[in-house]
């Protein structure tokens, strides 16, 4: 299981708020300049575009995801992750509860 506790980072207090507050994240900046966001997704269906490639790690809760151009939806829950290519996007749906995630920017 990946580490989900980070030391020596700068946490950005200003939240990234999307879809009228149904998706909320905070940015972490590491000493080497790399970034992650940690956040919550409340029930609903959302689409996100990517600039850089990303890895979405689901920490708790559950969701289903369809990458842009993929034929099928896939289910994810705590302890699982999926990668999204750069200059792409994905649809994500949370049916019930709250989905907690860590998004790592890969490039």
Could you please describe the fold and organization of this structure?
This protein is an all-beta fold and 107 residues long. It has one domain (10-105): Jelly Rolls, CATH 2.60.120.10. 0% of the residues lie in helices and 55% in strands. The protein contains no helices and 11 strands. It has strands spanning 10-11, 16-18, 23-29, 35-41, 44-49, 54-60, 62-67, 74-77, 81-84, 89-94, 99-105. The strands form 2 sheets. Strands 1, 2, 3, 4, 6, 9 and 11 form a 7-stranded antiparallel β-sheet that branches. The protein is globular.
How are the SSEs ordered, and which strands pair?
Elements: E1 10-11, E2 16-18, E3 23-29, E4 35-41, E5 44-49, E6 54-60, E7 62-67, E8 74-77, E9 81-84, E10 89-94, E11 99-105
Antiparallel strand pairs: 1-3, 2-3, 3-4, 4-11, 5-10, 6-9, 6-11, 7-8, 7-10
Summarize this, please?
The chain is an all-beta fold and 107 residues long.
Main sheet specs? 7 strands, antiparallel
N-to-C order of helices and strands: EEEEEEEEEEE
General shape: globular
CATH architectural type: Sandwich
Poorly predicted runs: none
Structural class: mainly beta
The averaged pLDDT comes out at 94
For the terminal residues, how far apart are their CA atoms? 22 Å
- The CATH class, by name, is Mainly Beta
Q: Please count the helical segments.
A: 0
The helix content is under 10%
| Name of the CATH superfamily | Jelly Rolls
CATH third-level topology: Jelly Rolls
Strand content: over 45%
Number of domains: 1
**Beta strands, count:** 11
Rg to the nearest angstrom? Answer: 13 Å
């Amino acid at each position: 299981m990946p580490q989900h506790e980070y030391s020596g980072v700068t946490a950005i207090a200003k939240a990234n708020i999307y879809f009228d507050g149904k998706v909320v994240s905070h940015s972490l900046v590491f000493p080497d300049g790399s970034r992650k966001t940690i956040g919550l997704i409340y029930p609903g269906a959302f689409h996100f575009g990517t600039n850089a490639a990303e890895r979405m790690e689901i920490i708790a809760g559950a969701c289903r995801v369809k990458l842009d151009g993929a034929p099928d939806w896939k289910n994810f829950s705590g302890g699982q992750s999926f990668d999204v290519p750069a200059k792409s996007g994905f649809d994500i749906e949370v049916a019930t509860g709250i989905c907690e995630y860590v998004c790592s920017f890969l490039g």
